[in-house]
Structures are given as C-alpha cells and as structure tokens.
Design goal:
By secondary structure, this protein is mainly alpha-helical. It has helices at 4-20, 28-34, 39-51, 76-84, 87-90, 108-124, 127-134, and strands at residues 56-58, 64-66. It has a two-stranded antiparallel sheet.
Length: 143
Amino acid sequence: MFSKSCEYGLRAIIFIAQQTSKNNKVSLNTISKEIDSPQAFTAKVLQQLTKNNLVKSIKGPYGGFIIEEEKMNTKLSEVIRVLDGDAIYTGCGLGLKQCDANSPCPLHHRFVEIRNDLRNMLESTSLQILANDLNGDLTILKR
C-alpha cells in the first residue's frame, strides 16, 4: 500500500517522536538500527522529512534528530503526503491506470470505502499519539 521509503519513513518518524517525548536526540545509526532499515536508505528518507520540516536535524557530536514540540501534532497523513504524495487516496486498488466511478474496476466501490477509512485514520492520528502508544516497546518497529 505504501512505498518502502514511506514505510521506513513512518517507522523512523514514529521512533524519533517516541525518543523526542523522552527528551532524547537520536542518531542516524540508532534510527536505522532500531527500525531495521538500511542506513543509506534511512538517511535519504530523513533528508526528505527534514527538508519538509517534519523532523529537525541537529549537527555536531551531540547532534541527532528530534521533532520540535509543535510538530508532534503532525498527522500521519502529512508524513505520507511528503513521502508518497496523495496517490494512496486516488489510486486504483488493482493499480489500473483507468479506474473511477464512471469506469470502475471490480474492486473500485469497496476500495473507495477502505480508502476513506484509511484517510480518516491517517488524518486523525498524530505523532504524539503514536509516541505515547509505544510505551517504550520499540520491537514493534522492527517487524
């Protein structure tokens, strides 16, 4: 459903949010290890998130990644928009180029319902909520 970079990006930003809520900065190495993601790939994803002001990169020997307090209210839909665009809300469930209400694929009407539920969940779930839900259990981000 999401691209690999979006999956890794979601896992990374949730991990950073959880660490930020404990007043910890986290390094690229720590993030990639904790979310079980290749370091170079994680760096590219974090660069995108930083460029779009969702995470903050602090340079230097005591640096790392954090999420500024006001950004902890960022909804997952915004993270996905930055990493994958809006295709998740508009694409065909079967991946067909031509699929809409006028020319629906066999899954179209069911997929529209699922897509709407997904949009509602992503637009109502913030990084803060997920950071709080983790309660220190980071193993869930490695699955």
